């Protein structure tokens, strides 16, 4: 890697342009000497992208812009970089400049579609995706358009798009499971071959749901399976049918409200959740989901009666104890919150999701507190091969001032997952505390290269700028 970097430096030194930063970590591609720095800079950026050194790739492409400002190519490569880096606004800016300079309209539309989707603007995402498909054969654009149709509740269009994807690539499990779901809403027999071919956990759950007797129960099971596998837009399709067939089906209303909340349709979600509670005031499901809705909206006072009522009817449910812990913390009653969090771990001592939620709660609310360290250690004991668990422990120890313990936990996290951005970020913070500024900056840069989380990115950028 250093050899390639040195050769590229030499090539750039022979060109009439200043060298791009970060050249010492270029990829392994060897380029012939050229008096034109433009292709060298593009190749250098590509080499950095291949190594996930995105900050350096960005700098190389930006340098290429200064060498040949009329070319669309550096802007297209920046746009692709920002797409994979989850930086949609910068991506939209780059692709706009590429379009102004004559870039292929099909690729411009495809990239715009991806950026609008990342921003949750599904109407624009579908519009741009359809433009791209009118101009070229673009399977990724078709996948994105199919998802967009679901979010826009254009069910027939989504089914046709997934049908096309499945026909083009019968091994495309994701498309076949979604096609199977949409077919199962009205024609379970047609759905089965696609679900059997997909053979994913989601597809298997849907096949199990199809064993349910016909009618609203099957639709509710399909919706529940979709929710369990992170597919609220699909769940809405089944659950809308269920409540249309059985307007008094309280659990279907509750699940539909939860699915709509997952799609960001909060007013519609609340209406269905409140309908569910009105129809079945003693339903733990309806009460808990309405309570959680209010808790997520920052209204613990409105959440309290519903979560308490749900717990009274289902006292062995650890999730309800966990939510009550969060509730009382939001109400400022931290001693009571501690009791409920302890109850959650008592009810589910071997559940890593409960343990992780408790550890993150203490880290967020009481950074440096011994409770956060204890909760993170419990999670590591339960999941010793989890990189995120070790990273969580590393952060807890770092905030508690145990730098030696933090260094060991973060080392283990990165041994298990070398590309875990948050662990690189926290190791950079550790090195800063130890006065190792150069090592810290390297870790912060690596974290920035790897992170696709906008919140974490802001923290990393602040650290690189010398913030607290």
Give the helix proportion (percent range): over 70%
Instruction: Find the count of extended strands (DSSP E, 2+ residues).
Output: 0
Estimate the global geometry from the Cα principal axes. flat
What is the CA–CA distance across the termini? Answer: 33 Å
Number of helices: 27
Low-confidence region ranges: 1-29
Largest sheet: none
Q: How would you portray this structure in words?
A:
It is a single chain. This protein is mainly alpha-helical and 468 residues long. The chain has 27 helices and no strands. It is flat, with a radius of gyration of 26 Å. The two termini are 33 Å apart. 48% of the residues are buried. Mean pLDDT is 93; it is low at 1-29.
Task: Provide a brief overview of the structure.
With 468 residues, the protein is mainly α.
Summarize the topology.
Layout: H1 2-13, H2 37-50, H3 54-67, H4 73-85, H5 88-100, H6 105-118, H7 122-135, H8 139-151, H9 155-168, H10 173-184, H11 188-198, H12 201-209, H13 216-228, H14 232-245, H15 250-262, H16 266-279, H17 284-296, H18 300-313, H19 318-330, H20 334-347, H21 352-365, H22 370-382, H23 387-400, H24 403-416, H25 421-433, H26 437-450, H27 454-464
Helix pairs in contact: 2-3, 3-4, 4-5, 4-6, 5-6, 6-7, 6-8, 7-8, 8-9, 9-10, 10-11, 11-12, 12-13, 13-14, 13-15, 14-15, 15-16, 15-17, 16-17, 17-18, 18-19, 19-20, 19-21, 21-22, 21-23, 22-23, 23-24, 23-25, 24-25, 25-26, 26-27
């Amino acid at each position: 890697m250093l050899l390639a970097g040195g050769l590229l430096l030499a090539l750039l030194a022979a060109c009439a342009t200043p060298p791009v930063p970060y050249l010492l970590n270029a990829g392994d591609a060897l380029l012939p000497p050229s008096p034109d720095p433009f292709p060298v800079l593009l190749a250098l950026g590509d080499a950095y992208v291949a190594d996930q050194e995105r900050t350096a790739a960005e700098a190389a492409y930006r340098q290429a812009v200064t060498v040949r400002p009329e070319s669309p190519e550096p802007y297209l490569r920046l746009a692709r970089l920002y797409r994979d880096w989850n930086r949609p606004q910068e991506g939209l800016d780059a692709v706009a400049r590429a379009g102004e300079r004559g870039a292929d309209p099909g690729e411009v539309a495809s990239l715009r579609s991806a950026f609008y989707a990342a921003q949750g603007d599904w109407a624009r995402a579908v519009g741009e995706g359809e433009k791209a498909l009118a101009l070229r054969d673009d399977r990724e654009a078709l996948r994105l358009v199919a998802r967009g149709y679901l979010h826009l509740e254009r069910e027939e269009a989504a089914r046709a798009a997934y049908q096309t994807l499945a026909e083009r690539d019968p091994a495309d499990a994701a498309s076949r499971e979604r096609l199977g779901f949409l077919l199962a809403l009205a024609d379970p027999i047609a759905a089965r071959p696609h679900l059997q071919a997909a053979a994913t956990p989601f597809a298997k759950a849907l096949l199990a749901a199809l064993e349910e007797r016909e009618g609203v129960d099957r639709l509710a099971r399909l919706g529940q399976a979709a929710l369990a596998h992170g597919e609220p837009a699909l769940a809405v399709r089944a659950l809308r049918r269920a409540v249309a067939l059985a307007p008094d089906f309280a659990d279907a209303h509750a699940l539909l409200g939860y699915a709509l909340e997952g799609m960001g349709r909060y007013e519609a979600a609340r209406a269905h959740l409140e309908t569910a509670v009105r129809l079945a005031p003693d339903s733990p499901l309806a009460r808990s989901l309405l309570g959680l809705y209010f808790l997520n909206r920052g209204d613990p006072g409105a959440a309290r009666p519903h979560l308490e009522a749900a717990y009274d009817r289902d006292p062995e449910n650890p999730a309800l104890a966990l939510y009550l812990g969060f509730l009382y913390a939001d109400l400022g009653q931290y001693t009571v919150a501690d009791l409920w969090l302890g109850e959650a771990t008592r009810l589910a001592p071997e559940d890593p999701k409960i343990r992780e939620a408790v550890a993150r709660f203490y880290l967020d609310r009481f950074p440096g507190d011994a409770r956060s360290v204890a909760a993170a250690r419990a999670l590591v004991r339960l999941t010793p091969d989890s990189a995120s668990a070790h990273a969580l422990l590393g952060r807890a120890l770092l905030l508690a001032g145990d730098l030696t313990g933090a260094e060991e936990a973060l080392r283990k996290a990165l041994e298990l997952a070398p590309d875990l951005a948050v662990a690189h970020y926290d190791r950079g913070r550790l090195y800063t505390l130890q006065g190792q500024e150069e090592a810290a900056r390297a870790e912060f840069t690596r974290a920035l290269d790897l992170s696709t989380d906008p919140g974490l990115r802001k923290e990393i950028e602040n650290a690189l700028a010398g913030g607290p």
